[in-house]
Amino acid sequence: MSAPETCCLPGTRLSVAAQVGLNRHISAFLPWQNDMKLSTECLSRCSPNWGKPERNEEQGPGLGVVAVGLTLYKYIFDEIWPTFLVSLFVAVFIILATRMLSIIELVVNRGAHAVQMGLMLLYLVPDIVVFALPAATLMAVLVAFLRLSADSEIIAMKASGISLYQMLPPVVLLSLVGFVLALLLNAFAVPWGNRSFKDMVFQIARSRADLGIKERVFSEPFDNVMFYVNHLSAHDHVMKDVFVVDRRDKTATNTIVAKNGEILVDPNKRSITLRFRKGTIFVVEKTLVSARTIRFETYDLHIGLHDIMAALQSRRKHASEMKVGELLKGIGSAEPTTRLYNKMKIKLYEKLSIPLAVFLMGLIGAPLGARIRARGRSAGVGISLAIFVAYYVSFTGVERICETGALAPEIGIWLPHIFLLLACLYLLRRVSRERSINIFKRTAEA
Fold first, then answer.
1. What are the residue boundaries of the structural domains of the chain, listed by start?
2. Predicted structure pTM score
3. CA distances (Å), origin 383, targets 136, 321, 387, 435
4. What's the pLDDT tens digit per position in 194-219?
5. pLDDT tens digit string along 415-430?
6. Are 357 and 387 in contact (CB under 8 A)?
7. What are phi and psi of 32, to 5 degrees?
8. Close Cβ partners of 356 (under 8 Å, ≥ 6 residues apart)
9. Tens-digit pLDDT profile for residues 51-107
10. Contact 291, 311 (CB under 8 A)
11. Which helix (H) or strand (E) segment is 257 a member of?
12. DSSP character for 318?
């Protein structure tokens, strides 16, 4: 049995808010009408002034239209922002949970206390928020428009003369908020957080006298002193198969090879002693004129407080720890062919490119959600994650290529964002003209 055609009472006038909710009420009385595709002919018979709000002499011309527009914008924005906040919170929580493992290792093995643990989590938040903002913005807009489309409210709005572009101001507002937030975090909070996190880890390592030395990794915790340790006990700081290059002496380089060693702390003298056993010292003069070999049963290498503090203060900043001014200064002084130069240029362009991705992700979500007739939040979450993963993989791949110098950073970093911009323009044009999106045709039919 076909469903009867539904029409409003002739001559009635409804506000946009009432028109938006019309399909819900009709759907409640006529459950057999799944799609509720109200024809323009039916709506036009409801009222010759369908979609035109009441206006009286006191309001003045155009005030009713403004009121209706604000009501519509508020209605759409109220659909978007709760999902945005929830998505952002969940993403930040999940990523923080994955980073907790390394922080717990510091607490257990290196004696970090609860305050340091809390500070390290705080330092990670800005970088994680910037990472999650594009996905959260896309998911919020897409889920909201999927819900409006599934409940036929998009159809009701379009039948009332409201185009897709007229629905975009709330989306643009949220996208701009995300853009500004990502821009500010990238410029100030992210460098501060990354720098503070690494300083905290270094201080914890120093306080536990393990100097930040890691197993089977070349490390230089102090200027001109390089370590390589095959095994390092986290409990008693006993080292096995130790290789040390000491270049602090301006006249000679001492290379120490020992079967084992240990780290001793003297709180009174505020110094650290590296005690090696059963090894050999190779002493080579800087002029390469002479060299000698010394075998020993026990040898002490002293590290004073001055060396420790100098190591902490002179720790070179990573590109991710630099602000815009520092990056510009570093780029100006670095060799153009080095990996460090490329990394600094990449981080500089990321300061703007990632906020741009947040803005474009929001605009992409509106036409996708308006066109795809999938029900439920799970569909929106799945589509959002697929788009974000594709963007992230392409962005990370381009970043790695730019680091090697095979592709100029000023070109490569913008390629994924140019693709996002073209996809955004394509989707807006297709959906505004009521044309199908072929790539999502199966999803729409489902």
1. 63-204+339-445, 224-304
2. 0.68
3. 12, 33, 6, 20
4. 989 887 876 775 565 556 677 888 88
5. 999 999 999 999 999 9
6. no
7. -75, -15
8. 179, 417
9. 444 444 444 444 445 555 788 899 999 999 999 999 999 999 999 988 888 788 767
10. no
11. strand 252-266
12. P
